[in-house]
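Exercise: predict the fold of this chain.
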Amino acid sequence: MALADSTLETVETPKSRAKRNASGLGFDVLLVVAVGALVIFGLMMVYSATFDWSYLDFDNPAEIFIKQLWWAGLGMAVMFGMSRVNYHHFRRFAVPIIAVTTIALLAVLVMGSLRFGAVRAFIGGSVQPSELAKFATIVYLAVWLSSKSDKIHHVTYGLIPFGVIVGTLATLILLQPDLSAAITVVLIALLLFFIAGADVLQLGAVMGLGGATMWALLQLPISLAETGRERLADYMAGLQDLTQASWHIQQAAVAFVNGGLFGRGLGESHQKFGALPTPHTDSIFAIVGEELGLLGCLLVIALFAVVVWRGFRIARTAVDPLGSLLAFGITAWIALEATINVAVMVGAMPFAGNPLPFISYGGSNLVMTLTAVGVLLNISRRTEAEPLQRKVRAKVTDFSWGNRGRSVSRPGRRG
């Protein structure tokens, strides 16, 4: 995959213009419909999972739902705003975005709110910089990798800077501590590095180093390591005997069994009344299974499948490497978090605190995920509007340590 960022002059044919106008919107309609359905479904499930708790704590059964509704409205506004902003502007703003993210990750360690034994958020748990870090990692790496072309095969241009960038973000997230978010950032980064053209030896080196680092962390006498060891032990025990799994997974299993094929009915979950921890965030898929049954779970999975299908299609048809890497990274992020959340709830993976995108309660994840979808829509808009391109010049922004300037490719030379 060639990774020269190109400035393109487009030629739109009457046929392509008619095709674009037929959609009436100019961007991926199926993606919007699927995401909209997931957000609406999520609002419904958040209300169902929190009305009792909300009434007891706030004397209003809709209090928590209203907060999520505000976050959803903000996220949708940002999504449609980002769909109108040319994603090529990220070339200029990638460094400021990653700098702001790093500052926020540092600031939360000093001024953040302590919740559940971790310092991960501001404003009483509403704003989590780790969610911004996931999006910022995708944006920065997409711009950085698309500027490298074949240079990423060189250790000084590819592997070492990649390790420093990702390692710094992951370390700051681990200090909160937030193991699941740190692993998510690393996995997304590895996928982008692979798609950008890294060879097997580089990937093997990164994965080996990451695995050794994780093993070393688990051996340390710190709370993060103790939590990780406990979760891994519970998972291994649960594979042999479900009754030996963690309390969380046992209660999720009870919810799925009680739900059966058609579910108890919306709002009729029993597990959410104290038995199942965090029913509105990490465990909300189990509430879906209890109230709407297997069919409800399959509907949610089908909607995510549509989002992933359209996202990877946008990545495949993007007009340049930057658009392709951005679309792939965003889609992989959504697919990864949804897969991990579902797999954990059914006992197929060790417990992780990943939210279910668009559905779990939480402002930071919802707003940042919808922001990322807005970038996807902008890439799809340009793809539909630019079915035929003529490359007139290639401009490469090089963030490498050895060359801090900009270079413009000459005729006959690869960008």
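Check your answer against the key: Residues 155 and 202 are 8 Å apart (CA to CA).
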